[in-house]
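ARCHIVE CARD
Drawer: 12
Card no.: 0347
Subject: one protein chain, sequence and derived structure
Cross-reference: see card 0346
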Amino acid sequence: MTKEEVLNAIRLCAKKLHRSPTLDDLQAAGITRHHVRRNFHSLQLALASAGLLVRGLGFRLPDSTLLLDWAEVARKLRRLPTMPEYQCSGRFRTQVLIHHFESWQQVPEAFARFAHEGKAQDDWQDVLALISADNSGKERIRHGKELGSPSPVVCIAGATGLWTAIAASGDGA
């Protein structure tokens, strides 16, 4: 089997599964471990060559992938996401971000550095403004002025995954 045939088979398998295939998935589709290793040396390299996101145990996601996903959630919510909000709306578990950036509180700062270093601040001005506002809010709290808290979030599990429902703040009416 040629390299191109293996790539096409991987893409087809991924399309059917709606995710990146494992070696067992490929085996079931007629692509042996030998075909993968002979042409790419590893499944990770084969998946990356096919243009697929490589994730799961043993695959380290690039910081940029995690930060861009976090920023998309912040943009959607129009505020920095809490851990439960990100868990419901993001593509990755919060523990993955904590592992990469040492704590949840470090993620906004890491995104700001990423945006400035990658010259992407124009594309992400709205999210960078949220980060800046959050940092100034922390300064007000540090100086004894209290801010309103964000609305609580409820995750609702459904047959196709998780949805985020933002509870309305107020007197319960």
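Annotation on reverse: The chain has a mean pLDDT of 81. The radius of gyration is 21 Å.
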